DNA sequence: TTGTAAGCGTTATCAA
DNA sequence: TTGATAACGCTTACAA
């Protein structure tokens, strides 16, 4: 545990082999200008001396660090962790490291995260904005540094930036149509923050479906900022207690849908016969809960992979801007499927 | 999107202010040797020039990169993502960045990951071994570089290394006692890979409880490598078909427990009255599935935080070795609680 | 095919 | 209180 042990450098290899550092550097890179034997010798010595390249030094010299910063609201959400899995896989196969930072949905943390990425000298930034974020100086600062930025899921609304997200409008539209097709007429919608495009789009999709099917607006309640299990529970309880029980609860989150279902079950209300409930995200629990939850599969891993691919192309010098919509999939389960 | 834009350096600041780079460097660090006015001036200019420190260069000079590598089998497991959340939080409050790498349970990826960390010049390594890992040259290589290594959850069995894990033996022991207290006598155990200490310890805890309660070994079946939903389902189906249905299935994983439950429900077998089922990990779905699953809460976040604290202390020069057992919590739910 | 030397952005030593 | 300069480990013209 020799903690003041100096690391092996190419200089060490050069000295033991009586070569110059440049020869060693080139040999290590497999440069054809170096003879086969020398290259072989150098690589062998590198191995036996426990050499590993000092990335930061190489980065300093070449201006390329091979590190990509990834900023997400939370890492312990099925959606984001799968998405990161996709990012990581694509970046790795392109010899890029993944630097992760989670904001915990805090704007301040997000600012710090971007600064940390700037300091770390990452070659590009992939980010999904926090719920709180409404100002973008920190992002613009990064962009000014001349390095690529790719948004995913929660994007900045600027068409000159790359963004990969799902088709929220359509997903919500289809979901609402499905609920209406099951005979529901008095709907409650549990939405998110209106300043995030994705939640606005979901709400718009919901409303458009109602419009297209001639549902009376007076029969509909829309709640903002209602994405948590607790919110779902509380709102549902309040509706029941005030005699306003709807016949469908369409939620922009599996968690609030879960809260609603728990509350309805407690109140002895039958799902789906009396009330249909739908969620959003296809969290692991949605399949195995009782009743199983109708929801939207977002293909998180693919979103991550697609975003990473755009980043890789940008890093390689193709500075194209892309906005990609990953198609969603309606997963119909018991919580919304009536038998008539 | 000026991609050949040179980044602002302290030299730029120095020139515009007619100061030397050393003064600027010191001012930026808040060195008291620099006058208040100069410090102020420099910081203001840094801001207006969009300056941010170039970490790699500073790392090269100081030998301290403030980056910690974290290697995990998978990121999209509730357990690991929560754990990483804990790590990230502690490291960040100590001005350390988190470098993440997932092995997908592959030994080859793990080797590459350690190498990537070595190259990235991280100051320390936090790692949970892949299931496949049985050789440790890559780890020893990192240790030889003189930088601290902290294991979590899946550790190398070497008392000269720091490790944070849960008390698997006791957790399994308590779980087994709970099942026995519910009157079960013919038990099936679904375990993991025997070469991982944690799974060995769980199996030992299970067996010790049987021993202490005088259960006939002939009434017990132990399966190795049975941690997935599919394995749980298949083994359970096979037991039922061959007329060997047990009265309890104790699993080392929530996923195989889930598989078992799905199979039992399909076969019309009552849980828990005919068969008790227990899992391990308290995955999100275990609470909301039907029946809710008795399991073990591992306090993943705390494991991460504790491991990160040890790392931070090592980075700061205290090279103490610590093995920490985080206490678990038995979460008793419907899948194992008989009413008599 | 190999070597020399400059320079990436920063910090730290020494000098003023 | 500030400045000049060397050094960290690496890559890459340019030279041999």
Structure characterization notes:
- The structure is a homodimer of 340-residue chains.
- With 340 residues, chain A is of the alpha/beta class.
- Among the domains of chain A are: 1-51, lambda repressor-like DNA-binding domains (434 Repressor (Amino-terminal Domain), Orthogonal Bundle); 168-298 and 330-336, Rossmann fold (3-Layer(aba) Sandwich), CATH 3.40.50.2300.
- In chain A, 45% of the residues lie in helices and 15% in strands.
- The first copy, chain A, contains 13 helices and 12 strands.
- In chain A, the strands form 3 sheets. In chain A, strands 2-1-3-4-5-11 form a 6-stranded parallel sheet. The first copy, chain A, has a 4-stranded parallel sheet with strand order 7-6-8-9, sandwiched between helices. The first copy, chain A, has a two-stranded antiparallel sheet with strand order 10-12.
- The longest helix of chain A is centred in the N-terminal third of the chain and has 16 residues, at 78-93.
- The N and C termini of chain A lie far apart (71 Å).
- The model of chain A has no long low-confidence stretch (mean pLDDT 93).
- Chains A and B meet through helix 4, helix 5, strand 2, helix 6 and helix 7 of A and helix 4, helix 5, strand 2, helix 6 and helix 7 of B.
- The first copy, chain A, binds a DNA duplex (16 and 16 nucleotides) through residues 7, 9-11, 19-23, 25-26, 29, 33-35, 38, 53-54, 56-63.
């Amino acid at each position: 545990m020799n903690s003041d042990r100096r690391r092996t450098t190419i200089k060490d290899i050069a000295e033991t082999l009586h070569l110059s550092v440049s020869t060693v550097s080139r040999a290590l890179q497999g440069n054809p200008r170096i003879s086969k034997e020398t290259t072989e010798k150098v690589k062998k010595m590198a191995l036996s001396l426990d050499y590993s390249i000092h990335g930061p030094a190489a980065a300093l010299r070449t201006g390329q660090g091979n590190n990509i910063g990834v900023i997400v609201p939370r890492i312990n959400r099925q959606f984001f962790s799968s998405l990161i899995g996709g990012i990581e896989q694509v970046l790795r196969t392109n010899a890029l490291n993944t630097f992760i930072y989670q904001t915990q949905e805090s704007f301040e943390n997000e600012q710090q995260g971007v600064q940390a990425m700037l300091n770390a000298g990452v070659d590009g930034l992939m980010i999904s904005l926090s719920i709180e974020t409404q100002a973008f100086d920190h992002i613009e600062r990064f962009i000014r540094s001349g390095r690529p930025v790719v948004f995913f899921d929660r994007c900045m609304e600027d068409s000159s930036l790359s963004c990969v997200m799902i088709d929220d409008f359509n997903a919500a539209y289809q979901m609402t149509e499905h609920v209406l097709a099951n005979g529901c007429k008095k709907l409650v919608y549990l939405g998110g923050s209106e300043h995030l495009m994705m939640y606005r789009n979901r709400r718009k999709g919901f409303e458009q479906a109602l419009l297209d099917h001639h549902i009376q607006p007076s029969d509909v309640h829309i709640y903002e900022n209602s994405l948590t299990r607790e919110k779902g529970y509380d709102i549902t309880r309040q509706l029941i207690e005030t005699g306003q029980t709807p016949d469908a609860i369409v939620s922009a989150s599996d968690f609030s849908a879960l809260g609603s279902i728990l509350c309805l079950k407690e109140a002895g209300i039958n799902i789906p016969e009396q009330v249909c409930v739908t969620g959003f995200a296809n969290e692991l629990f949605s399949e195995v809960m009782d009743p199983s939850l109708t929801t939207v599969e977002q293909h998180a891993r693919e979103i991550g992979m697609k975003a990473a691919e755009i980043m890789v192309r940008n890093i390689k010098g193709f500075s194209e801007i892309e906005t990609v919509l990953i198609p969603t999939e309606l997963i119909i389960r018991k919580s919304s499927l009536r038998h008539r």
